[in-house]
């Protein structure tokens, strides 16, 4: 059940919110209402994957309970390994089998497993919970609270990646506490902003990017097509993913629950280090806290820093998918972070416009690898950008790239807009309501397009 459908926005979500506030004073009933709603939302995508989601959640809770009862750190390690094994099996086993066949010449059986939706996101949350118990940040939760932590539908499918100690305690807060009107207002506005990003920017940008990358599978695109297609995907992935995050945060606020921000104007970054502080922030901090720092990247000298950075960013690439392009994308960002760190450590400085332009060039080049299904397509795209094809004409819709760049790099972020510029005026409320109605009507005239990060 996609957030940007009339079924969700006009039927499911208003009904759920009404029931939620009707039982607001009944904590346990409220918890189970959200659990059942989350199961319904997840099942609407593909009910075949529900047993795996529930199984991983229950098994992880039982492992933690065994640890609390027996003090067995081995159980925690086993739980972490099992969760990672599930993720690896679904995402990478066929990729490894294909390459094993190429090396040995022996035909091997394939799993042909479909990737369960949201697996990458909720698996990392389960791993972080068990890892925190091992590191002494021990939190023991009732079964119902833990299950809601895992299943909570606004962020279950595509994040933000939320840690247990950020959200579980909020489940028992009274939704009718004094700031309820402010939370409802901000939540609604974030929902509208997310809808606008998805429908007015991300989906139209996809219509520019997709044909170019499709043509690059067989030939070098023209100079203008390759540049506009690359820029279109650069903005598409940002607006598509941040749209989901805005809607997830907004829906949560309407329930009285705060989840962390996931983007902070990443295309204003003036270094790759700055970019990763702004892009998919909850994934960045997970990799930092549960991989990079434990590997000694922040305290153990230059050699350990290089190794930890490359391992962390390689894992980041593989987290997105089983493919050489993802692997190289992650490793390229790792190498870029190392160069950036060395430059800054030596006191190197560039004029801000130059630093920004260099950073964006690296990020955009990375998005070509990220989007391309294989290296041949990526090389054709790079060839087109380098001018190895014909020049071509400026394609229709190029104006949309200008609008997207202005919104991404000049306008306030969604978080800043609702925190600083949302005014308690009736005229403003009417404007946001009118925008919502317009977007609802717009949805009715097109088929919903899934979010990019649903495939990860």
**Count of DSSP H/I helices:** 19
Largest sheet: none
The H/E string reads HHHHHHHHHHHHHHHHHHH
Mean pLDDT: 92
Structure overview:
The chain has about 450 residues and is mainly α. The protein is built from 19 helices and no strands. The chain has helices at about 5-20, 25-45, 50-70, 75-105, 120-135, 145-150, 155, 165, 180-215, 225-255, 270-280, 280-290, 300-320, 325-345, 350-370, 375-385, 400-410, 415-420, 425-445. Helix 3 (about 50-70) packs across helix 6 (about 145-150) and helix 13 runs antiparallel to helix 14. The longest helix is centred in the middle third of the chain and has 36 residues, at about 180-215.
Topology readout:
Blueprint: H1 6-22, H2 27-46, H3 50-70, H4 73-104, H5 119-134, H6 143-151, H7 153-156, H8 164-167, H9 180-215, H10 223-254, H11 272-278, H12 281-292, H13 301-320, H14 324-345, H15 352-371, H16 375-385, H17 398-409, H18 414-421, H19 426-444
Helix pairs in contact: 1-2, 2-6, 3-4, 3-5, 3-6, 4-5, 9-10, 9-18, 9-19, 10-15, 10-16, 10-17, 12-13, 13-14, 14-15, 15-16
Label this structure with key terms.
single chain, 456 residues, mainly alpha, 71% helix, 0% strand, globular
């Amino acid at each position: 059940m996609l957030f940007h459908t009339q079924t969700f926005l006009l039927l499911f979500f208003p009904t759920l919110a009404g029931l939620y506030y009707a039982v607001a004073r009944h904590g346990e009933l409220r918890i189970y209402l959200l659990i059942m709603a989350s199961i319904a939302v997840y099942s609407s995508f593909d009910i075949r994957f529900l047993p795996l989601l529930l199984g991983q959640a229950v098994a992880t809770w039982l492992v933690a309970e065994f640890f609390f009862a027996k003090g067995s750190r081995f159980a925690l390690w086993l739980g972490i390994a099992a969760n990672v094994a599930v993720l690896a099996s679904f995402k990478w086993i066929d990729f490894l089998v294909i390459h094993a066949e190429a090396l040995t010449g022996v035909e091997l059986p394939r799993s042909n497993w479909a990737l369960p939706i949201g697996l990458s996101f909720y698996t990392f949350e389960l791993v972080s919970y068990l890892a925190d118990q091992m590191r002494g940040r021990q939190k023991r939760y009732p079964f119902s609270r833990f299950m809601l932590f895992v299943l909570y539908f606004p962020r279950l499918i595509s994040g933000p990646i939320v840690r247990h100690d950020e959200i579980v305690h909020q489940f028992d807060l009274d939704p009718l506490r004094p700031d309820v009107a402010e939370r409802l207002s901000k939540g609604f506005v974030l929902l509208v902003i997310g809808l606008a990003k998805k429908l007015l920017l991300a989906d139209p940008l996809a219509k520019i990017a997709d044909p170019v990358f499709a043509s690059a599978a067989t030939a070098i695109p023209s100079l203008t097509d390759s540049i506009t297609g690359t820029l279109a995907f650069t903005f598409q992935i940002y607006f598509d993913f941040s749209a989901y995050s805005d809607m997830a945060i907004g829906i949560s606020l309407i329930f009285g629950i705060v989840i962390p921000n996931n983007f902070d104007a990443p295309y204003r970054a003036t270094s790759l280090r700055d970019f990763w502080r702004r892009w998919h922030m909850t994934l960045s901090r997970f990799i930092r806290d549960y991989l990079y720092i434990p590997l000694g990247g922040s305290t153990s000298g230059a050699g350990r820093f290089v190794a930890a950075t490359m391992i962390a960013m390689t894992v980041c690439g593989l987290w997105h998918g089983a493919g050489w392009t993802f692997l190289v994308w992650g490793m390229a960002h790792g190498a870029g972070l190392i160069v950036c760190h060395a430059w800054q450590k030596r006191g190197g400085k560039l004029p801000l416009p130059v630093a920004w332009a260099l950073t964006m060039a690296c990020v955009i080049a990375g998005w070509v690898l990220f989007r391309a299904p294989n290296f041949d397509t990526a090389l054709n795209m790079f060839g087109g950008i380098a001018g190895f094809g014909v020049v071509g004409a400026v394609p229709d819709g190029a104006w949309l790239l200008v609008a997207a760049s202005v919104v991404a790099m000049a306008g306030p972020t969604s978080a800043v807009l609702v925190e600083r510029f949302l005014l308690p005026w009736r005229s403003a409320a009417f404007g946001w309501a009118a925008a919502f109605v317009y977007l609802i009507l717009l949805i009715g005239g097109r088929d919903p397009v899934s979010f990019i990060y649903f495939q990860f």
